[in-house]
Amino acid sequence: MLEKLVYDTKKYWKYTKYAAKSELKSEVANSHLNWLWWVLEPLLLMLVYLFIAVVAFKSTLKYFPIYIFLGLTLWNTWSGLLKNSLKLLKRNKGIISKVYLPKLTLLFIRMLVSGFKMLISFGIIIVMMICWRVPVTWNILYIIPLMMVLFLLTFGMCTILMHYGVFIEDLSNVINVGLKLLFYMTGIFYSLEERVHGLLGNILLYCNPISFVIHSMRNVILYGKSVNIWIMLFWGIVGIVLSVIGVKLIYKYENSYVKVL
Amino acid sequence: MRADAITVKDLKIVYRSLQSQSIKKSLFKAKKSKRGNFEAIKGISFSIKEGEIVGIIGKNGSGKSTLLRALANIFAPDEGSIHIHEHTISLMAIGVGFQPSLTGRENIMLSGMLLGFEEEMIRKKMNEIIEFSELGSFIDVPVKNYSSGMHSKLAFSITSVLETDIMLVDEVLSVGDARFKKKSEEKMKSLIGDKHRTVVIVSHSISTLSKLCDKVIWMHEGEIKMYDETQKVLYEYLEFMGADEK
Description:
Chain A is mainly α.
C-alpha cells in the first residue's frame, strides 16, 4: 500500500502541482480584488470575532487579535478541507469517469491549495507578531511537529470522508452541523482554559484533536509555552491510524466510485 | 507475428449493490439491502494485436461502453485481468472531463498530463491543439463558459493531437458543426490509418465499422457472441438483429 502511495504521488506530482496552481490562478482571475481576498477574508473574519469577543465576552487575553487569527486560520483550513473532501469525487466526476487518475491525487490538490492559503495567513501572523512585539522563544519550533500532527489528522479524516461521501448522500448535513458545534467547543474566539473549568475544560481541550492543536499552537507561538508531548504523540498516532484506514479504503474502491457516482 | 496490444482475461464487471443512500437507510436497512448484482460483463477473454482496428457492436446495454471504460482503467475489473503492455491509452468519448473553472489552455495541459504526456511535449503540441479546435481567443476563457459544441471540439482536439498508442473511441467519430465534422472525420481516418496505432471503436453504425475495422467483437448481454473478420460478424449481427425484431 505504501509503495503504491509513494509511486502514485511521485507519478502524478507534476499534475497535482499544476492543477493546484491553475486553481489558485483561476480564483484570482475570477474576482475583482484578486489575491487580496486571501488576505482580506481572514482579516475581516477576525474583526468579526474580535468584536464578539471584546464586546460580548469582555476578553482581556494578551495579543488577542493574533490569538483569534491563528485559531481561525487553523480551523478554517481544517474544516474547509473536511467539507470539501465529502464532495470531492462527485465534483470531479467529469474527469474521473473519462480518464484514470488516482483518487488521492484529487485530495492532494485540495490540500496544496488550502496549504498555500494557510501559508499566506501565517505570513500575516508574522507581520502581526512583529507589530505587537511578541517575544519568541525556542518553543516556537514545536510548530513543526504540531503541523505534522495536523497534517496527518486532516489527511486521515479527509480520506475517510471522501470515501463515505460517495455512498452516503446526506453525510454532508451531519458533518456541517457537527463542525458548527465543534467550532464553538474549540474555543476559537475565547480561551477554553479560562472559560471552561474542571474536567469538562480538560475534555474539550485535549479530547478534541483540533482544539488541542490550536491551543498548543497559540501557546508555542504567542506565549512561549511548551507542549504536552504525550498528547501530541497520541494524536499523531491517531492521525497515522486514520490515514492508513482511509488510504486502504480509497485504494480498495479506487475504480468503483465511478460506478456509483 | 505482432505482439498483443491488449490482453483481456476472464474479465468480469459487476455493478454491485454499491449505491449511494441516506444515513437513515444505511442504519436501518443495512442487513436487508441485498439488491441484485448486475453483471455488465460476464467473464470474457480476448486479445487485440498492435495496429489492429477492432470494432465493438451490440445492442444497447450489452456492455460495450463498460468494456471500453474498463480498458481505459476507469473501472476496476471485479474478476479477471486487463493488460495493455506498457502502451499509452486514451478514451475518446463525448465530453472529455474538464475542470470547469479553469481555462481551455490549462485544461489541455491537465488532460495531456493525465494521458501520460510530459509537460514539455504538451507545450510543443499546444498550438496545434488550439488551432485544430478552432476556439481562437476562447482558449483563455474558463471552460464553464463554453458551448457544448466548443466543449466537444476541444475534447476531440486534445485526444486526436496528443496521439496515444491505443485509442478507444466511443460513438464519436464526428463532433461539432458540419465543417468541423468533416475535418474531425478526416483526422480520425488518418489516426486510424497509422499502422502502429491500435484502435477500438464502439459504434452502432454498420457502415462505419465495415469501412474502418479489421475485426469486430459482437457483444451480447455481457458476453462475446462472436469475434471475427468484420464482414462475417456484421452479416451475422444483422441477421440476428433482424430476427430479433420479427
